[in-house]
Amino acid sequence: MSTSNTDTDAAAAPETFEYRAEMKQLLHLIVHSLYTHEEIFLRELISNASDALNKVRFRLLTDRDIVDADAEQRIDIALNEKERTLTVTDTGIGMTREDLIERIGTVASSGTLAFVEELRKKKDGPLNAELIGQFGVGFYAAFMVADRIEIRTRNADSDSTPLLWTSDGTGSYTIEESDRTARGTEITLFLKEDKDDFAKKWRIQSIIRKYSNFVDFPIHVDGEKVNTVAALWHRPKSELTEEELAEFYKFISADSEEPLGHLHLAIEGVVAFRALLFVPKKAPQGMFREDFEHGLHLYSSKVFIQDDCRSLLPEYLRFVRGVVDTSDLPLNVSREATQHSPVMAKIRKTLVSKLLGTLAEWAADEDQERFQTFTREFGPLFKSGLSSEFEHRDELMELIRFESTHGEAGDMTSLAAYVDRMQEGQKAIYYILGDNRPALERHPSLEYFRANDIEVLLMTDPVDAFIVPSIPKYKAIELTSIEKSDLKLDDKKKKGGLSKKEAGKLIDRIKSVLGDRVEDVQPSERLVDSVATLVTGKAGMDAQMERMMRMMDENFTSSKKVLEVNMRHPLMKNLAALRAEPFREKDVELAIEQIFAGAELIEGTLESPETLVSRMTDLLVRATTPDEAADAGA
Ligand code: ADP
Questions:
Q1: Of 88, 87, 94, 89, which Cα lies nearest the Cα of 55?
Q2: DSSP 79-106
Q3: Is the CB–ligand 1 distance for residue 93 below 6 Å?
Q4: Number of domains in the chain
Q5: Are residue 213 and residue 278 in the same domain, yes or no?
């Protein structure tokens, strides 16, 4: 950014500032992209005005020595069709010179870059204007409809200087002193020729009703009040209609859909508070990002205190939107103070147990659709709570869902339902971790369970690998990976394998070929059709967990695996027989290598498919070589 003047003569001439390169890029994109709802610029301006009013209301609680301390807190919109102007005025906190440069002239750059990227990606389709609000570049949405904007503003500090900011939204902006001395901000949009609609009263009124109806300050359009100011959560439950709730939800969440469900609380206990919470129908964008804004707004006796309130709900419930209002917090509480406040901790405790209670009701509902939607949209994040939530662990365990061999793809089961279906004498809840269901269904480790009709949970969610370690048991029943080497299985259908002695010799042969590439070689109880599989040693990690570790840490080294071989498989029987013929030594070795490579391939750890294929070719050549002796006899 370059300045053409110094601070001392700023009063005399307008000072010109260049936008930073990324800012120019952003402005260009905003102005030249196709928006689905360009009307949202007004919501952004009103929301900024409302924020500014909240700040002044808050400040007045402790400090009355400010500009226009007694001015009514309100938002005014003035329209001039002939001049094609729209002016939004608030009696809020106003802006200083630094604010104009740092907050209006620049945008929080991390967000901006992400925003520009997102815009680029969507360039082909119509743009979702919600993005603008999400990335904190709301003010600039006004350049969709205006080709020049003037901001007259005066900060609440009694010695502040009134300022005028102007820009045409291309390369630069100017700042100079202004003669408007009232506290707050007046933003004038000089509308583009084809945007004269936004100077019409009916149009502006309807936009406000749509987007800004619950703003906690009166909004006047050409002197006439438009919005219904109402702290909905203070009204009795029975009085609220579904429409009002949905409308309120859409307003606070900027979601265009109705919520999946809501929870209305009026608690009169150790801590008194009211809350109106919503679960969205769709997982909001960026839900897994670190900087995802939490959806709860905190009020104290109807006075807005803060949004993005992280201390009110645990991370795994961060998709919940809504308001919490308590009279037990001092109004001038700081963001830092709320984080450690015992009042907040108590509210949080109640909110979590009420929310989990509501989810349990949904889960018990005969009409399962709502809970299924919940599981589909929020299941992964919700499950992740198992690694941090100790107080409500039991409730959480009842609410998590997995796919299993019992149902079709997409069907989810609870642990309770699994236990209900357990076979007599079954000692554990069995699971297998993996990337996707089809791959797991073909997994050799599953053969025993399929043959014996024992259900296995198919854990295909990336987060599953992280949470299983924190659920060793469900109601005293162990959760056991079917990839573990020390599974105690009792095969009812065991039939004709190799003799113990024969098997022992063959295993020694396999060990001598594979050497220290495996931890051990063992006869398998779990294989029915497959010849071999790699399983986790006693101390090792599941294959899926190792895959995730490797993704996070390229230096991660996997632990050695145990190769389990199926002594009832014809191939094993053949190999045992061939062992007696020294001239077939090479075939035995090739076969063992191939068996091992096949097991690695299925496990997803095979490093050289080329070797596997060339060995297979070798084997095929041997298998298809015409048998001289047989030919001669024919
Ligand atoms: P966001 O509101 O998401 O932070 P904006 O681009 O809309 O992004 O606004 C940037 C900043 O400019 C605001 O955070 C606020 O500090 C300041 N601002 C905007 N409008 C006003 C206003 N009417 N009164 C006071 N400050 C404002």
A1: 94
A2: EETTTTEEEEEE-S----HHHIIIIISS
A3: yes
A4: 3
A5: no
142 plus 25 within the same structural domain: yes
- C-alpha distance from residue 255 to each of 235, 277, 356 (Å): 23, 14, 23
pTM of the complete model beyond 0.85: no
**Among 261, 256, 339, which residue's Cα sits nearest to residue 294?**
339
State whether the beta carbon of 349 lies less than 6 angstroms from ligand 1.
no
pLDDT bucket at 251, cuts 50 / 70 / 90: confident
Q: What per-residue confidence (pLDDT) applies to 115? A: 62
The single residue listed with the structure tokens 């071999």 is: 532
Closest residue to atom 3 of ligand 1, CA basis:
136
**What pLDDT does 3 receive?**
45
| Position 87 in a domain | yes
Is residue 465 situated within a structural domain?
no
Query: How far, in Å, are 62, 91, 146, 154, 359 from residue 69 at the CA level?
Result: 12, 10, 32, 13, 47
Per-chain mean pLDDT for the chain: 86
User: Do 108 and 178 belong together in one domain?
Assistant: yes
Pairing assessment for the beta strands 146-154 and 163-167 based on DSSP bridges:
antiparallel
Q: Parallel, antiparallel, or unpaired for β 456-459 and 403-404?
A: antiparallel
* Residues 245, 189 share a domain: no
Tell me if 186 CB under 6 Å of ligand 1. Answer: no
List the residue whose alpha carbon is closest to atom 23 of ligand 1: 49
Residue 34 has pLDDT above 80, yes or no: no
Q: Is residue 127 part of a domain?
A: yes
Structural domain includes residue 194 = yes
Q: 250 with 297: CB under 8 angstroms?
A: no
Q: 279 - beta bridge partners? A: 261
Q: Domain range spanning residue 603?
A: 500-536+558-633
How, if at all, do strands 184-191 and 146-154 pair? antiparallel
Q: Whose CA is nearest to atom 20 of ligand 1?
A: 48
DSSP assignment letter at 9: G
Do 139 and 111 have their domain in common?
A: yes
